[in-house]
Amino acid sequence: MDEQIRALADAHRRRILELVRDRELAAGEIAAYFEVTRPAISQHLTVLKQAGLVDERRAGTRRLYRTRPDGLLGLKEFVDRLWSTGLSRLKDAAEAEATDPEKD
Amino acid sequence: MDEQIRALADAHRRRILELVRDRELAAGEIAAYFEVTRPAISQHLTVLKQAGLVDERRAGTRRLYRTRPDGLLGLKEFVDRLWSTGLSRLKDAAEAEATDPEKD
DNA sequence: CTCAAGCGTTAGCGAATGCTTACGTAAGAG
DNA sequence: CTCTTACGTAAGCATTCGCTAACGCTTGAG
């Protein structure tokens, strides 16, 4: 999971994941959305692929990328595990409020 | 959200969040769980606090920390947004299966 | 085979990150 | 007030990161 979350730690890479969330895009097309050079995006794509967050498919001389949500499973579980604590606290608060209905 | 996810990009900090997930611990107590020096943990706690991922409470000379799940809201939304794509793909697969019940 | 398109890869650089050691600070004990 | 406890903070260093510029590779067109 370390690899995935560190891949997400960069804003460019997060934006790439949203760009190819529900459609395939070629590396050059992705790069066109950013103001950094194409090799920089290529490196980001390598990191994302290595982390299992995107799929790569070759079509002729182009390489098409697409988000692979399964790669986020570990991180999602981690976040949900911490988040559930917050939910139980809200539940406690709600129960306390039910006991003392006047409180706000 | 950038600050929060970058705070999570370090394994020590993730473990700290789990340690103080549902109980308060003093800085020194937290540090005892790790093999790095206490100042290193103190710096990690500063990062977590800055990102809004932990609450700090002073009690005498001690400082008690506790995970603050609300800080994860932005990241949770981001992950869920990408994750939902995976779910809709599973849904498509399920519907295709419903159309062709023989398939498994 | 030759050429161009579309990408990845490498080298090198400045900035950021995480660590340790040494020092500074606030609160309670005596 | 003095000393100790429990911390945070600053300085310095090695490592990692993200970027650009230059180069290399593979595919399809002719």
UniProtKB/TrEMBL annotation, chains A, B:
Species of provenance: Kribbella sancticallisti
Domain HTH arsR-type intervals: 1-94
Transmembrane segments: none
Taxonomic superkingdom: Bacteria
Listed Gene3D superfamilies: Winged helix-like DNA-binding domain superfamily/Winged helix DNA-binding domain
Pfam families assigned: HTH_5 (PF01022)
Name the record gives this protein: Metalloregulator ArsR/SmtB family transcription factor
Keywords: DNA-binding, Transcription, Transcription regulation
